[in-house]
Write a structure and sequence with these properties.
Elements: H1 8-13, H2 19-37, E1 50-51, E2 63-71, E3 75-84, E4 87-96, H3 99-102, H4 106-124, E5 131-137, E6 141-145, E7 148-151, H5 168-178, E8 184-190, H6 192-203, E9 207-213, E10 217-224, E11 240-244, H7 262-269, H8 288-301, H9 322-330, H10 337-345, H11 353-385, E12 389-395, H12 397-401, H13 405-416, E13 422-427, H14 431-447
Pathway: Carbohydrate degradation; glycolysis; D-glyceraldehyde 3-phosphate and glycerone phosphate from D-glucose: step 1/4; Carbohydrate metabolism; hexose metabolism
Keywords: ATP-binding, Glycolysis, Kinase, Nucleotide-binding, Transferase
Family: Belongs to the hexokinase family.
């Protein structure tokens, strides 16, 4: 007996999430949040809820010149920011991290960063001034203070040796000393979500949640100290601290198996960090294009697309970029111009109108699932925080460039959040780098 040929609908069904399923996901995530904040159950939670030691948002009186380093992917930025309360002037430069450095030694990585920082300061004529620096380091870390962050694990394709278990601020300081640079004073290390929250709070004081949907996916929020059982520091005012949830690891304890598809499992099986960051792998820009590619391969094997024939490029893992998903869904020309350009890059010839429609449907299904999963996470935070009104700061390439992601998220958060709690989504205009400088500025203000 032959197996029944799977149609597009059959294949995509597993990626469609009802509100009932999203509410179940939200309840499971809340359970992980509560475990993560409880010192007796923290080790049982896959969502680690790290206190960031950032206790306050900008109040508009911050002044001075600050540096920021923003490391969160294969590019990093060096920023110099002049703050005058709500006004600021900023310069920044993007530097590339070669693959060999991403997968080399930790010392080589920090030497590369220190050299680029030095080059930028020299270019600005600031290399002889002592400047405070905020360091955005967007990988899972346990923070032991505002200037102490120990790397738990690499993500996003980094595998640098001899960094896991080490304080990344000390590694940066050591690299600067090796280069004879003692004019940079690292006064804060933050995660990119915290940077996003701070950056948006500088513009709107009601911002209390920061979310990143880019290469990776994560969120942070401001929590009352009385709810943070893992907090062993002073209890002075303000009675609050930003918590870095590290929700990308949600599901690593197998609690999300009921929504993971065969394709999700295959992607994880062939990833650098097998069994880790399972929630992130269903959402983020690192994997979205690959999910689409694998669905297309499955449809082609069933003869449902491209007459069942795929060029070698389509059979190459990660050849279908996540940005292609945004291009394809942005295509409103009626002539499928963007889809044709993407298929040209993928070396597909003689595609039909039906193929275009199927590819668009696949992209839409994958990006919608991603937006709904993030929405479930944000709704969980809003329902937990119980604030009348909260601004949610959001950054990351998927959110920034996908044509419908914001609208999908907004609609679904509204459906999943108690109607008493109002919210707005705010794009973080200057990314997480400015937020790192603002954390440094708030630290400078509060230490006076």
């Amino acid at each position: 007996m032959t197996n029944k040929i799977k149609t597009l609908e059959d294949v995509l069904k597993a990626f469609k999430l009802s509100n009932d399923i999203l509410m179940k996901i939200s309840a499971l995530l809340l359970e992980e949040f509560e475990k993560g904040l409880d010192p007796d159950r923290n080790s049982l939670s896959c969502v680690k809820m790290y206190p960031t030691f950032v206790r306050d948002v900008p109040n508009g009186t911050e002044e001075g010149r600050f540096l920021a380093l923003d490391l969160g992917g294969s590019n990093f930025r060096v920023l110099c920011i002049n703050l005058h309360g709500k006004l600021y002037y900023m310069t920044s430069k993007i530097y590339e991290i070669p693959q060999s450095v991403m997968n080399g030694s930790g010392e080589a990585l920090f030497d590369h960063i220190a050299k680029c920082l030095e080059d930028h300061l020299e270019y600005l004529g600031l290399h002889k001034q002592v400047l405070p620096l905020g360091f955005t380091f967007s990988f899972p870390c346990i923070q032991k203070g505002l200037t102490n962050a120990v790397l738990v694990s690499w993500t996003k394709g980094f595998t640098c040796s001899a960094v896991v278990g080490k304080d990344v601020v000390q590694m940066l300081r050591d690299a600067l000393i090796r280069r004879g640079n003692e004019s940079v004073d690292v006064i804060a290390v933050v995660n990119d979500t915290t940077g996003t929250l701070m950056s948006c709070a500088h513009m709107n004081s009601e911002c209390r949640i920061g979310v990143i949907i880019g290469t990776g996916c994560n969120a942070c929020y401001m929590e009352k100290l009385e709810n943070v059982g893992t907090w062993n520091e002073d209890r002075d005012d303000p009675q609050q601290v930003i918590i870095n949830t590290e929700w990308g690891a949600f599901g690593d304890n197998k609690c999300l198996e009921f929504i993971r598809t065969v394709i999700d499992r295959d992607i994880d099986e062939n990833s650098l960090n097998k069994g880790k960051q399972l929630f992130e792998k269903m959402i983020s820009g690192m994997y979205m294009g690959e999910i689409v590619r694998r669905i297309v391969c499955q449809l082609a094997s069933e003869g449902q697309i491209f007459k069942g024939k795929l060029p070698e490029k389509f059979n190459t893992p990660y050849a279908f970029k996540s940005k292609y998903v945004s291009y394809i869904e942005s295509d409103c020309s009626g002539k499928s111009d963007e889809i044709k350009k993407v298929l040209q890059k993928m070396e597909v010839e003689n595609a039909t109108e039906k193929d275009y429609r199927i590819l668009r449907d696949v992209c839409k299904c994958v990006s919608t699932r991603s937006a709904y999963l993030v929405a479930a996470g944000v709704a969980t935070l809003l329902n937990k925080m119980k604030r009348d009104y909260t601004v949610v700061g959001v950054d990351g390439s998927v959110y920034r460039f996908h044509p419908y992601f914001k609208d999908l998220m907004e609609m679904k958060i509204r459906e999943l959040t108690d109607s008493k709690y109002k919210f707005d989504l705010m794009l973080s205009e200057d990314g997480s780098g400015r937020g790192a400088a603002l954390v440094a500025a708030v630290a400078a203000r509060t230490s006076k």
